[in-house]
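Worked Example 4.2. Consider the chain below.
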Amino acid sequence: MAIGIGAVAGWSSAHALFLGFWTLVIWGVLAVSLGLGARRGRAAAAGALFGLVASVVFMITNYGGSAPLLTRTPFFALLGVVGAVCGAPLGLLGAFIGARWAQGT
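Applying the procedure from the previous section yields the following structure tokens:
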């Protein structure tokens, strides 16, 4: 599920005309939502997978350089890891909010 949502988020963000910084806010909300819906112990993985896929798909979709896309793959993968590192704590935040909500606190 995180892969599909990440791919759609990355692709649609690349085609949005004027979202700018708000793209990251939307991605953050999606990562927290995935953490809310994740099975126990899987929230960080869901958030990380979402961040990785959204980042890589966004970069591939936006790429318009003259060099072949394959030569940019290591750089895109590195930025995808940054997306994963950002998505994991957001997934955990979603799990924390879900647990607190379930307790009624």
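The CA atoms of residues 69 and 91 lie 30 Å apart. The chain has a mean pLDDT of 90. Compare this with Example 4.1 before moving on.
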